[in-house]
Design brief:
mainly alpha; 1 helix
Length: 40
C-alpha cells in the first residue's frame, strides 16, 4: 500500500489516487483497532 501525496495543482489524478490510498489506510486501521488497540 502506498501513502503517496502529490502537491501539484495540475495533477488532479494524483490527488484522487492519494485520497483513495488514504481512505484505504483508514479502512485497514479501523480493522486493526477492532482487534487490538493501537496508538501511533
Amino acid at each position: 500500500m502506498r501513502g503517496h501525496y502529490c502537491f501539484d495543482a495540475q495533477t488532479v489524478f494524483c490527488y484522487v489516487l492519494s485520497a483513495q490510498s488514504y481512505n484505504h489506510f483508514l479502512t485497514i486501521r479501523a480493522k486493526f483497532q477492532k482487534e487490538e488497540i493501537y496508538t501511533p
